[in-house]
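User: Could you write out the 3D structure of this protein bound to zinc ion? I've included everything you need below.
Assistant: Certainly. Input first, then the structure.
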Amino acid sequence: MDPKLPFGLRISDPRYVNVESVPTGAKCGCLCPACNGPLVAKNAGRQKISHFAHKADCVGALETVLNETAKQIVRELGFV
Ligand SMILES: [Zn+2]
């Protein structure tokens, strides 16, 4: 199953960003933190739920993205 990722790792910062906050398609400039594969932002309103498209054989992408995004939030709020 193609994991539908709500967040991706933006290469330029690098930080985890929501799919709604990046350019559409391959121009999003984001990677999957689990496999370092490029993500494609599906956020132009043609999908029911915006997400990053991703290769189907990456194991653990969603877990990794959610885990790393949560850690980023905690870090930025100053809890660690
Ligand atoms: Zn991946």
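The longest strand covers residues 7-10.
User: Perfect, thank you.
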